[in-house]
Amino acid sequence: MEKELNQDWFEMATVENLNLIINRIGRQRKIERSAEELLPIIERVRQEAALLGRKNEVLKLHTEKYLCFQQMIMEEKSKKVGLDSGRLTRGTLGRASASRTLENYVRENDPDLKPENKAMAYLQLGKYADYTGRFIKSEFCYRQGLVFLKNIKDPNKKVARLEFAGLLSDSILKQGRTDEALRLVNRTLKDFDESGDGKLLKEKKYQYWATWKSGIEIRTAEYILENKMKKYYVPAKQYLEDAIKILVMPNGDREIFHHRRNELKKVKSLLPKNKIKR
Q1: d(CA 113, CA 121)
Q2: Dist. CA 117–CA 157, nearest whole Å
Q3: Residue 11: predicted pLDDT
Q4: What is the C-alpha to C-alpha distance for residues 264 and 213, in angstroms, rounded to an integer?
Q5: Distance between CA atoms of 202 and 208, rounded to whole angstroms?
């Protein structure tokens, strides 16, 4: 675990150490209760990066700021007792402001930004649009991200297209274009298993592979079952059956998927008690 946060711990940014600092911010953000304390550090480093003329690093820092507010919200909403309503409000308002800033920065500096950095920014913008029920906007963001990912040669970065495709299918589904969405869902799930990107992700980062793939299956099944779309009950059941199988690490560890398995359990409870006819 990282040591206690301190402004001086993150030294003044230079061209040489800037990305190291950003990576350290990303690691620290994931430690509980660290996100809010990181905000002034991110702002200081962002100003230093701007003075250095490092636009891609500035974009990464805008993205990190957004993710800090998102982390605050997630931490408070996950509490069974002792929810800090003030912190939740700060996270919610901060996330809304950070999303606008992030979107404006990408738009204003587009020619100078790397495709992978723009893609990751649009990933967060798409998720925020989903959170706020703006599914046409989230569809646009995910499609933009996929366009940027096509220009990336590094296979370790291109695998992100699988996550984008899954989120895109959910946006389309929420707009009522069910058949179109399910075609994309099935094509994407097949890519997870059979494409070069899917096989690479499964081999190198099984946790990501299983989390992303099961997320598509659980979200799709949940929408079908909650809306009592009986025509699609068979694929919904199949999605959940596959999610059960893959949410275990190669070494047998299931606990690492604790939250995802809880989501799966809730959605499984929506399945009709009677046998589903094929």
Answers
A1: 11
A2: 11
A3: 82
A4: 12
A5: 8
Measured in degrees and rounded to the nearest 5, phi and psi for residue 21 equal -65, -45
Produce one character per residue of 160-192: b if its CB has 16 or more CB atoms within 10 Å, e if not: bbbbbbbbbbbbbbbeebbeebbebbbebbebb
Helices 160-174 and 196-204: angle between axes, nearest 10 degrees: 110
User: pLDDT tens, 6-29?
Assistant: 555 568 899 999 999 999 999 999
Neighbours of 250 (CB within 10 A): 9
- pLDDT, average across residues 95-106: 98
Q: What is the pLDDT of residues 40-85, one digit of tens each?
A: 999 999 999 999 999 999 999 999 999 999 999 999 998 889 999 9
